[in-house]
Amino acid sequence: MRQLSEYINNDFKPFSNSDLVEDIQDFFAEDSHSHFPVLDNGVYIGSISANDAETFDTNKPIVDYRYALEGFFVRTTMNWLDVLEVFARNNSNMVPILDENNNYVGYYDITDIIKFLNETPFLKESGGIIIVEKPAIDYSMSQITQIVESNNGKLLGVFVSQADAEKVQVTIKTTLGSMNEIIQSFRRYNYEIISEHQEDDYLNTLKERSEYLDKYLNI
Predict the structure, then answer these.
(1) From CA 98, how far away is CA 112, in angstroms rounded?
(2) How many CB atoms lie within 10 A of CB 116?
């Protein structure tokens, strides 16, 4: 699997704070980026958004609108989950990258990050997805792992997909070998199964009984 650093992009040069707003508007008109970095003598000072640039005076340099620049960035050493969080938190499809000395080294494009995610075992490996839910005070990630592995399953990935003060919803990807046994074990530990599964003997039995009852009542 490729390293995230291999996706550092320098296809387009960052803006200089002396660039005219008109040139920046032209860039965004031809490109799909929501934001793009601005440098002051080589030092990153923030990113200008395409939406903001549209409202600025075309004849002024971008430095006149320094107050509108958004200062988000990631480090070259950050893992992909932290990088993805910066994308989401700033509603951007581009994130500038700085090294440990605050030097600008390029940017990540969201399409490249998606390509990277597609190479992770969670998405690339074949398996089954189970979504479970339990009260927030009761759920345990180690218990979830134990349930899967005690039924000869192999975890390919697990993350909290929804959470509030009362309940936590966890999405699990596991090898397909013992799906029904895993599902029934979660029920025994009082997890609610949110996802639907053809392998679920419990629901299949309920369905058969319901169909039998309907047939009986219609006699």
Answers:
(1) 18
(2) 20
